[in-house]
Amino acid sequence: MSDARAVKVLIIGSGPAGYTAAIYAARAALDPVLIEGLQPGGQLTITTEVENWPGDVSVQGPDLMVRMAEQARHVGAELVSDMVTSVDLSKRPFAVACDSGARFLAETLIICTGASARWLGLASETRLRGYGVSACATCDGFFFRGKTVAVVGGGNTAVEEAMFLTNFAQKVHLVHRRGELRADKTNQARLMANPKIELHWHAEVEDVLGESGVEGVRLRDTRDGTLSELKVDGLFVAIGHVPATELFAGQLAMDDEGYIVKAPDSTTTSVKGVFAAGDVTDKQYRQAVTAAGMGCMAALEAERFIAHGVGAHVDVSAAA
Ligand code: NAP
């Protein structure tokens, strides 16, 4: 890799975690380079109003991400519009190759590749995303005050989102494809005790109805194929998330769902000099503000690692 460019800090991913890491690393005079990936700005670019980002009463997700990018550039980070195609974590500096042919040798790597919501895969769902179809009740629940919504899924996320939505909606339908929930018993008991929630067992969403906004969903009974319709103003899809970790498969410790394992109270991973921040390592909180917090931690830890070497790397086995 003779033509590879040597950098102290290479950040992969451009959500709140990546941009925050870039801001902190740039202000620490580490001249970070951030590779933006296919969707600069990440998941927030597919949301509309964000009302839980501290300091903004209301901000459009895409605008917030543009501002983060501008701030990162302003303090001296280099943002590169490219896709990382391969990473070699077997030795330091880490070799990183991009789609454009650009190559880097990075002393430290901060992985902020995020996760994406798993969707049902319906054309109507894609068309109405941001117009009543959402994968984040925390982000969008507020817009359904006094309305009727449906949540799809049977895991802890779906159950918690359904309960959270009862703070706003007058009625919440929980649609699950089997006759038994995957969510833990405590969550199930709370769900059953909530009078605003109606459960629809053995049901799959076959179509989302409405032209410019959600007006209902068509359900299919998974046992006999019977079709029915539910009139709802919003649909929350909560069937899991998929972390973007394929690039690192076999090179970093991951849990059984593919999330990068990091040490407690740290962003250090199983490879010294490699840090992970944001949704790629977090299935619990998944918020812009928590991702940004982790991005800050990762930059501070990278700075310490560069200054003090491998001894500064917290042992990830403590997380096991
Ligand atoms: P999950 O546990 O994988 O549950 C996904 C749910 O979506 C399952 O009920 C699944 O149905 C359903 N599903 C998947 N694909 C579907 C499809 N194409 N159509 C319809 N339904 C579909 O995901 P999660 O709820 O996001 O949770 C992820 C992890 O985070 C879990 O380990 C969870 O326990 C954890 N978590 C914990 C908490 C907490 O402890 N408070 C909160 C949230 C999440 P089946 O059941 O039929 O497979």
In words, what does this structure look like?
The protein has 320 residues and is α/β, with parallel strands linked by helices. It has two domains: 5-116 and 241-319, FAD/NAD(P)-binding domain (3-Layer(bba) Sandwich), CATH 3.50.50.60; 119-237, 3-Layer(bba) Sandwich (FAD/NAD(P)-binding domain). Helices cover 23% and strands 26% of the residues. It has helices spanning 16-27, 61-74, 123-127, 137-140, 156-165, 185-192, 288-308, and strands at 5-12, 33-35, 49-50, 59-60, 78-80, 84-88, 94-98, 103-111, 115-117, 133-134, 148-152, 171-175, 197-200, 203-209, 216-221, 227-230, 234-237, 241-243, 274-276. The strands form five sheets. Strands 1, 2, 5, 6, 7, 8 and 19 form a seven-stranded mixed sheet that branches. It has a five-stranded parallel sheet with strand order 10-17-11-12-13, covered by helices on one side. Strands 14-15-16 form a three-stranded antiparallel sheet. The longest helix has 21 residues, at 288-308. The chain is elongated, with a radius of gyration of 21 Å. Residues 120, 152-158, 160, 177-178, 182, 204, 239-240, 283 line the site of NADP nicotinamide-adenine-dinucleotide phosphate.
